[in-house]
Amino acid sequence: MNIAQNIAAGLDRILTMEVVRVTERAAVAAARLRGRGDEKAADQVAVDAMRQELNRLAIKGTVVIGEGERDEAPMLYIGEEVGTGKGPAVDIALDPLEGTTICAKNLPNALAVIAIAEKGSLLFAPDVYMDKIAIGPGYPEGLIDIDASPAENLANLAKAKGVGVSDITACILDRPRHAKLIDAVRATGAAIRLIGDGDVAGVIHTTDPDETGIDIYLGTGGAPEGVLAAAALRCIGGQMQGRLILDTPEKVARAEKMGISDPKRVYRAQDMARGDVLFAATGVTDGNLLDGVKFGRTFITTHTIVLRSSSRTVREIKARHQDLDKF
Ligand code: VTB
């Protein structure tokens, strides 16, 4: 496909490289505030850096998943137009610092993330919880089911992997609301990796269990993070199901306003991120898949993963930034 055809098809291929700079900048900015115990400050610098870089991209972009509604987020709010305005019309889901608390505590797996998709192809998810289940690639479609018990899902996964359930590790957010889920998983003999935050990374980790040690993601986390994770899985492969938790009339009404008519609908990864999708994540703190930003004496090193659904290419980019004045 040549560039003109590519633009016509939706996403410009050049964007795949250009987008790296966006998450790199956000990650470097946040990493300067790693371990300072100030979540807000780390998030703010990441937002500023991401927005600045995003506005240099040759796109006509609209933020559909961002820092919040316009009245609560001054920058990268839902509906904000970003990019130079010249280029493909795209929808953008982003989280300049996914895992603000882990960054503030300097714990593993804080990321700067973005997904860019053809206009109209990302789920407009309200900022509510989403029940999620995800596994990596290479398993028959339908192996996991959000409505089945954890025991059933774990047994089916173990069987398909050719191991015992006790060889399976589930990743779950460490939250009181997950007490029952945690008990149910432990009762099967499976191991759990409890994470403090960062379920985008948690879901992505299922795509490479040999490297990350995680086979399945279970539990409820943010719905916006669910769409970001779904975008990544669309590119790498794997299966995910999510259901919004709309447990009050106010949440149902909010979702309706965003075009969600069936509050109980189960979304698969391909329903949350349709069409051609680009996904990029740069490590802020060291993690299982990505290294964190390293500040050297003469250069800064960043580690980024860039994915594209149409080609399913997984690129890892380790960059040395020598022009330190820019950062
Ligand atoms: C997760 C996690 C985020 O929010 O989505 C979580 O990925 C869910 O909300 O890093 P609670 O913290 O209320 O459980 C974060 O922890 C923070 O946005």
UniProtKB/TrEMBL annotation:
Cofactor(s) recorded in Swiss-Prot or TrEMBL: Mn(2+)
InterPro entries linked to this entry: FBPase_class-2/SBPase
GO molecular function annotation: fructose 1,6-bisphosphate 1-phosphatase activity; manganese ion binding
Keywords recorded for this protein, A-Z: Carbohydrate metabolism, Hydrolase, Manganese, Metal-binding
GO biological process, one term: gluconeogenesis
Residues that, per the record, bind substrate: E98, G99, T100, Y129, R175, P176, R177, D197, G198, D199, G222
Transmembrane segments: none
GO cellular component terms, semicolon-separated: cytosol
Recorded catalytic activity of this chain's protein: beta-D-fructose 1,6-bisphosphate + H2O = beta-D-fructose 6-phosphate + phosphate
Residues involved in Mn(2+) 1 binding: D43, E67
Protein family (similarity comment): Belongs to the FBPase class 2 family.
Binding locations of Mn(2+) 2: D95, E98, E225
Official protein name in the record: Fructose-1,6-bisphosphatase
